């Protein structure tokens, strides 16, 4: 993880802007994460074009957009899976260069992908601590891990699992999502990115997951939530960011939007009612 | 889904024995923790059947013999379980064990006359190196272990023939000429030492069981009811005493022969070490994780390649021990070794015991139970004069039954817990 500024990658600036030129000056130190001019291309395909986004702490930012709008590429850039071709990422006002998932998780960014990355053959405690087990005289300290897991699940109001010694393979979709999120929280993450957490869930389980998202925000953790379901978005989000064909067309507080304008922007990239791409929307 | 976390846990901490019904406990014992219930009953049925057919079966001499027969299946089964847990397999361990044994036999022969405490570890080391080679190829080149070790099986047979024939005109077999190597299987502990080993094992295991329960309870966590743990310890002690009495009974009709064969404490030691690594250390946890979801393990920051290779090392080590016991039991090594058959029985032992072929699920004890089942069939069938044809067919049926029972148990398990 290098924190020293790197010269911006040249050769990707054909989009007609210079990377980082104006970005540094306008970074708001209050923001947890700020993206300036983030671009990403795969060969000739430009998946992201100069995205500027601010993610404030302790708020839920919903990232919405149609398939292929670039949502997934954007979060993969943040989480270090695809390093950006150009642009800058600021974490708490400092420029950072996450090149691997480990880089971003060391910063405090946790990404919960749709596949959740859980081991079905291990129980909840074992999954929660996978890769960072507590030990006592080189032996696994199961009791310490189990107590901490119970405590955390109680804190997050995840009350539906019978026993933390249940195998994860026996859990429902919503419970699995909750465990994956709880694991991210346990690792002292300050930003949790969730990719379509409710996509495969039923009504009551969706409600549980949304409640969990709100709980995270109330604990001071910022959440970026990718969702196709605008009902969910308007239930939990504090802010909305709309992507269209690789650009961020609009972002701001949820109060500036309604479902109709959001749909309009998702499909056409603009709305007659909402000012596009206002830095803070207010 | 319906019971809140706090409610269920505090209830069970406060009053474990009354809030959890006996039936529920039995069911849990059946499918959850050990999963050994069905196969132990199967073993019991086999024993009753063979004893009904011939009273020799449960004689002290035959039981001791059965344990020795089981040793090779048990050890090779444990070697295989290290890999099965990750969804890998090593088809070459039969011949690898043969090479390890051959190295020990050759080095301790009168011709070379190395000391046993150098030669025996070198035999084990040979097997570790072989496993490391397979592991490295499988991991670095991302090849299926099945194919790599299939090639290995053929290649190692060649190496073994070369080793044996390199010792001059031996007629295709080399005898064991070293007392310690010979005694690994053929030597016995004194009756007193037998008792010491058994009592020590029972006390240690009992202490571990009760102590871990006690720690959970004092931390305020849900623990198994006290009576269950005590029942386990008592059953263990009873089995221990029974075994000690059997081993200490004279089993020779013309001289006097008693005591526990050295092979048994060796089995126990390997079992204890393997179980410890798998359940109490990070390495073990990671091996299970890799078998369950390799991508999740990788994303959790686990160095997947390193732990896969480590499992190959453990597997090779266990294979080496098996090889030493193999040459000790046969009192030599010959070019006629059935390494290909042994490896299939090793996999069968693990699977019969309850280890999954697809990774992520299994325990070292499974090889012990599975190995005993296979040895029981072998031993019993021979006693009641069943032909080799019948023997193979029955073994196949038992293996098939084990897989079926396992699949059914797993299905009902995943649907009953929610």
What does this structure look like?
The complex is a heterodimer of chains A (282) and B (418). Chain A has 282 residues and is α/β, with parallel strands linked by helices. Chain A has one domain: Rossmann fold. Helices cover 29% and strands 24% of the residues of chain A. Chain A is built from eight helices and twelve strands. Chain A has a six-stranded mixed sheet with strand order 6-9-10-3-11-12, with helices on both faces. In chain A, a hairpin with a 2-residue loop joins strand 11 (239-244) and strand 12 (247-253). The longest helix of chain A has 16 residues, at 203-218. The two termini of chain A are 35 Å apart. Chain B has 418 residues and is mainly α. Chain B has a domain at 35-182 and 316-413. A two-stranded antiparallel ribbon of chain B has the order 1-2.
Q: Oligomer, anyone?
A: heterodimer
Question: Mind describing the biggest β-sheet of chain A?
Answer: 6 strands, mixed
H/E element sequence of chain B:
HHHHHHHHEHHHHHHHEHHH
State the CATH architecture of chain A: 3-Layer(aba) Sandwich
**Computed structural class of chain A:** alpha/beta
Spatial order of strands in the largest sheet of chain B: 1-2
Strand content of chain B: under 5%
CATH fold group of chain A: Rossmann fold
CATH class of chain A: Alpha Beta
pLDDT < 50 stretches of chain B: 1-19, 30-34
Following the backbone from N to C, one meets helices and strands of chain A in this order, namely EEEHEEHEHEEHHEHEHEEH
